[in-house]
Design goal:
The chain has 8 helices and 20 strands. It has 319 residues and is an alpha/beta fold. Strands 1, 2, 5, 6, 15, 16, 17, 18, 19 and 20 form a 10-stranded mixed beta sheet that branches. Strands 8-9-11-12-14-13 form a 6-stranded mixed beta sheet, covered by helices on one side. Strands 3-4 form a two-stranded parallel ribbon.
Length: 319
């Protein structure tokens, strides 16, 4: 299976205003759309709710609230997104009513959802995606915020306190043998960090030991390195955020993973650039910066990277 992965996808606030101001105008360049559309399946982290309803989560200390208009679904469909994870710290920004709206709108567009639901059972439920007989289980979880956790009778996200280890409900699903591969997509760790923190590394090791075929993280808004079957952070995919001059969260990657039953065979990371509410392929100088930073991040984790046709490639099939 060829799997496309993109990180934090924020379609609210300024991006949502662009959607309303220019209906039908793509938020992603044709090159990016064609690149991701060539994969068998495409997964991203949807870091907002999609709704015209709801009230802001009542936390005076919360600085950011992200809600996209329903037209945002059309952008996901245009990209060919097959599944999103809503296990993150923005799914409930406008309360349960907006989250339930999001779930309904995505279902109408035939986009699978993991990591959130009307109850904790639904939020923790994995998605099963199939392509030409290859069956992939996708599990979504987030380690923040605890307040957004779904309950027995409360909509919310699949929360996991990773500081105490990977919870049993995750390990139990990884251990099932009714699929060819299992992907765990985890919203973990703090924002704006250049490398995975200790609790993230420990959780990644536990997921690997439990038998996860592939682990794809997000949350930092900055891409991290790859080690074996763990993509520690996918970085950002689209947003309207302020740019850190050192971490350059406006320069990122999308990933194409050739996935077999024993794990990823090949990981290809393609440089992208995030303009305001628009994502495109990175230009020559931008791509050079991205490649250098990604190669250094992977080398720090013990992984060597080859540059092929401007992309960063990691060959894992011989392991």
């Amino acid at each position: 299976m060829r799997l496309a992965l993109a990180g934090d996808t924020m379609l609210g606030r300024g991006v949502g205003e662009e959607l309303l101001r220019h209906p039908g105008r793509p938020l992603f360049s044709d090159e990016v759309a064609e690149l991701l559309g060539g994969a068998d399946l495409f997964l991203l982290n949807l870091e907002c709710c999609i709704s015209e309803q709801g009230e802001r989560w009542p936390d005076p200390a919360k600085p950011f609230f992200f809600r996209a208009p329903p037209a945002a679904v059309d952008q996901l469909v245009r990209l060919g997104v097959d599944c999103v994870t809503l296990a993150n710290n923005h799914a409930l920004d406008y309360g349960a009513v907006a989250l339930l709206d999001t779930l309904e709108l995505l279902a109408q567009a035939n986009i699978e959802v993991v990591g959130a639901g009307q109850t904790v059972v639904e939020a923790r439920r994995s998605a099963l995606l199939e392509h030409q007989g290859f069956r992939l289980r996708i599990i979504g979880l987030t380690d923040h915020p605890r307040e957004y956790a779904a309950g027995s009778d409360r909509p919310g996200v699949a929360y996991a306190d990773l500081s105490t280890g990977v919870p049993g409900w995750v390990l139990d699903q990884i251990g099932r043998d009714d699929v060819d591969a299992t992907l765990v997509t985890s919203h973990w760790g703090p924002n704006m960090t250049s490398r995975p923190v200790t609790r993230v590394r420990r959780a990644a090791a536990a997921l690997d030991a439990a038998g996860a075929t592939l682990v794809a993280g997000h949350s930092a808004h900055v891409f991290h390195g790859v080690h074996g079957n763990v993509l520690f952070d996918l970085g950002d995919f689209i947003d309207d955020y302020a740019v850190d001059p050192q971490l350059r969260n406006d320069l990122g990657l999308v990933f194409i993973v050739d996935l077999g039953p024993n794990g990823p065979v090949r990981v290809e990371a393609i440089p992208i650039a995030l303009d305001y509410a628009f994502t495109r392929r990175a230009d020559h100088d931008e791509a050079a910066w991205i490649r250098a930073r990604f190669m250094a991040a992977c080398r720090e984790l013990g992984e060597e990277v080859e540059v092929i046709d401007g992309a960063c490639v990691i060959h894992l099939g011989s392991r």
